[in-house]
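Hello Y.,

Per our agreement to keep a running log of every chain we model this quarter, I'm adding this entry. I've kept the format consistent with earlier entries: sequence first, then predicted structure.
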Amino acid sequence: MLSTMATCNSHGQDSSYFLGWEEYEKNPYHELDNPNGIIQMGLAENQLSFDLLESWIENNPNSSGFTAESSCSFKEIALFQDYHGLPAFKNALVDFMSEIRENKVVFNPKNLVLTAGATSANETLMFCLADPGDAFLLPTPYYPGFDRDLKWRTGAEIVPIHCSSSNGFRITKSALEDAYQEAQKKNLKVKGVLVTNPSNPLGTSLSLNELNLLVNFITSKNLHLISDEIYSGTVFSSPGFISIMEVLKNIDLVNTDVGKHVHVVYSLSKDLGLPGFRIGAIYSNDDAVVSAATKMSSFGLISSQTQYLLSQILSDKKFTKHYLTENRRRLKQRHEMLEKALLKTGVRCLKGNAGLFSWVDMRCLLSEQTFEGEMELWKKIVYEVGLNISPGSSCHCDEPGWFRVCFANMSKETLTLAMQRLSSFVDSTVKKTNRRHNKLAVGGNSRKSKSLPKWVFSLSFTTRNRKVGEERSLVETDD
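Predicted structure for the entry above:
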């Protein structure tokens, strides 16, 4: 008695990304109430600078609009507002977006459409740009939620742009062309490319070369380009963040047909750490897209009180400047804390400069270099170690053994505990593997082979290109 959409399995809820969340919710870690519970490291949430926002609220008690001293009355906020949004908030938001980009780009509030989060923004753009059955190309690995956001209700398809660890998962011209040809083989009409910049899950910002490559590609194919820049304010080290709008400006394409085919998605969920406020936006130079998206936004409006409060916060330029600087400092510090702790266990990460997570190379811990081996490891980490991390396969990574590990949604003490748990697990795995290799090496000989305290480095970085199933020899390495 339900609709096809209600009963179909295309939501993506059966992904290990979501299943890990379910396991966490059954047994969540709490310092006092459940110290042996699962620590949530699959949530890309920024709690590191929440105290700055709380302090601002405390020092600005009239900002809610509910007091007699407020510039806006309760009645004004409570009554109906049209879906174009409050002008004061839109003006403050575009100024904040420019500030993040060091004012190298100026945004016009008339080109901005407010949505209930980036999820709604991406889906709305799909409805505007693609018909059911049309395809968008996405570089791998990509955010698992895109399988839901872009496809579930719109009927659009995703074709992966296969990226490799050999070049740090950077987008290449050949990968773009291969994805386009693959879509054509499947009789899919390609309508555009969607990228996240900075990348989720990689934690890296796109290079100028990649951005120019994308602009040239969509120009040659007459395609749309969606740049999801939800993590633009989280870039904490070099290279810095380059917005696609800055690229268009520098090559005088903003007011051209190519410029009209480029659309930016933004949100305050990551940069300000306010996912519960559901603040998202679409920015486009195409009037037709802005008009259609504005009409669709009526299905996911942002409350007037939320807009009013945030217009007050974002209009305080002294605060936003301090917040962005301090937030980046804290993110960098926490990022280094995670990666140093991982390195002590023999596990390395992709070199990142942004985001709320690290892209962690755990291929050295796989029992076999397959996705079955990845899932086996993931289950051990969730159930035995008590950490919910996201396996690369849930992000459509082509190479088994990569995991996204979040670090900004917990205290330093909780992160320290998480790393202690992981270190114990790695040590245990090393001992078991050494015993297994010793037995194999001994055979009929009573002489034992040397154990390898840092064997994980050897497996991860000197034998990664050997064929699966090929016998590995252990070599003594320096610390």
